[in-house]
Specification:
Helices cover 78% and strands 0% of the residues. The longest helix is centred in the last third of the chain and has 35 residues. It has one domain: Amino acid/polyamine transporter I. It is globular. The protein starts with a helix and ends with a helix. It has 435 residues and is mostly helical.
Length: 435
């Protein structure tokens, strides 16, 4: 149970809460949901099993696992893009988590309202440009996450997830019920589940679904390989993998039931990305009855999701330092947390400031997110698929993944060997063009 909750905590993050609802509404509603479910089952589940199997079979870190499977060059380097992806994501994830912590503090102190005539977007801009406040919040959330991983896999990660994930579930369900109870909530449900079937025929819908599946499940970051290495023998990996996929998707749908009924009940329009969580929803909470309590619950929900994901991201380089260089966990955790703080400084200080942003160019946060999402994650997932599908013997791979039955084995092996690499090449090429 501890392993399952830790993996779910890794997969469930900020993208589930505000990105999944928006892309679902924009790219066809129920039609996008169908496309996403197909993609996550066809590509996400086979890759997730491949990562679990590599770690479970070798009991090595995200780099060493592939070296043990195939020591030949260049295949032995297949794990490094995942470590690089985790590091690049750590350039901005602590900053966004710091914003969440700041909004939670505003909700706890009853300071969510803005002066008459002002707007929540002005508050968000002012908050992100207050470098010292962001740095303080960033240091606090990184200290908490580093302390969890420094305590160890069982005493730190597993024990924390056993507490945080049930609390996350209670808050999630409670907020969804509250959102559906608001007057006019049906409009939000209609926005979610309207089916624009023409979206199924647009290539962009499939590409967005592919990218969402990689990022939200946490594939290609080295996390699932690292966590798989900690599992003792005799565990059913397919069941765990399916549980993670189902749980991650279910959280995204519940997030839709939190956000859109609340937004539409007050006649507001949904916004994309951070604007939904940091601009539109605070305005919703300000105007609804009992909004301050709902705001505390929502930003606590976001903070738990962000912390659980950040813990798993930190564990990837920590595991590499421990297994490859013989470091003890405490110094490895302190070094990794310190480096994460340093590399995220430019994003924390430069978000929206002129001296780090040219006119018409994306912010550093945007650039880091695009490079990780469009380049490193698909590249890492492609390397994993090629190693598992082409460098590992079929019987050994299927046995390590725990896939039972001739048909199930053939289906999984064919997916990893042929279908998944083709899809990932499409995503990678499209991502390079977009980036």
């Amino acid at each position: 149970m501890g392993f399952g909750l830790a993996v779910l905590g890794s997969a469930i993050g900020l993208g589930n809460i505000w990105r999944f609802p928006y892309v679902m509404g924009e790219y066809g509603g129920a039609a996008f949901l169908l496309v996403y479910l197909l993609v996550v089952l066809i590509m996400g589940l086979p890759l997730l099993l491949g990562e679990f199997a590599a770690g479970y079979h070798t009991h090595a870190d995200g780099v060493g696992a592939y070296e043990k499977i195939t020591p030949e060059r260049p295949w032995r380097w297949a794990g490094w893009p995942g470590v690089a992806a985790a590091v690049v994501i750590l350039m901005y994830y602590p900053v966004v988590t710091a914003w969440v912590a700041q909004y939670l503090w505003l909700a706890l102190t009853g300071d969510m309202s803005v002066p008459a005539g002002a707007a929540q977007d002005a508050r968000f801009v002012a908050l992100t440009h207050d470098g010292l406040a962001v740095l303080l919040a960033q240091a606090i959330v990184l200290c908490v996450a580093t302390g969890i991983v420094a305590a160890g896999v069982v005493s730190g990660i597993e024990r924390t997830c056993k507490v945080l994930m049930p609390l996350f579930a209670v808050l999630l369900v409670g907020l969804a019920i509250y959102g559906l109870s608001l007057p006019g909530a049906q409009q939000g449900v209609d926005f979610m589940f309207h089916a624009d079937w023409s979206a199924v025929l647009r290539p962009e819908t499939w590409l967005v679904a592919l990218g969402q599946a990689l990022f939200t499940v946490g594939i290609g970051m080295g996390v699932m390989v690292t966590y798989g290495a900690y599992l003792p023998d005799s565990h059913a990996l397919p069941r765990i993998g399916f549980t993670v996929i189902a749980g991650d998707t279910f959280v995204g749908l519940l997030a839709c039931l939190i956000i859109f009924p609340a937004v539409f009940s007050l006649g507001l329009a949904p916004a994309q990305g951070p604007g939904l969580a940091f601009v539109i929803l605070p305005e919703v909470f300000e105007r609804m009855p009992g909004g301050n309590v709902a705001a505390v619950a929502f930003f606590l929900l976001l903070l738990i999701a962000a912390l659980a994901s950040m813990v798993s991201l930190l564990e990837v380089p920590i595991a590499v330092l421990m297994s490859r260089h013989g470091w003890r966990r405490l110094p490895a955790a302190l070094l990794t947390g310190s480096v994460a703080f340093l590399i995220s400084l430019p994003v924390a200080l430069g978000e929206g400031t002129a001296w780090l942003q040219l006119d018409g160019m994306p912010t550093l946060l945007d650039l880091a997110d695009r490079f990780a999402s469009y380049v490193l994650l698909p590249l890492s997932a492609l390397a994993i698929a090629l190693v598992v599908g082409w460098r590992w013997q079929e019987k050994a791979a299927c046995d390590a993944a725990g896939v039972q039955g001739i048909r199930a084995r053939r289906l999984w092996w064919t997916s990893v060997r042929w279908l998944v690499p083709v899809l990932l090449v499409i995503v990678l090429v499209s991502g390079l063009v977009t980036a």
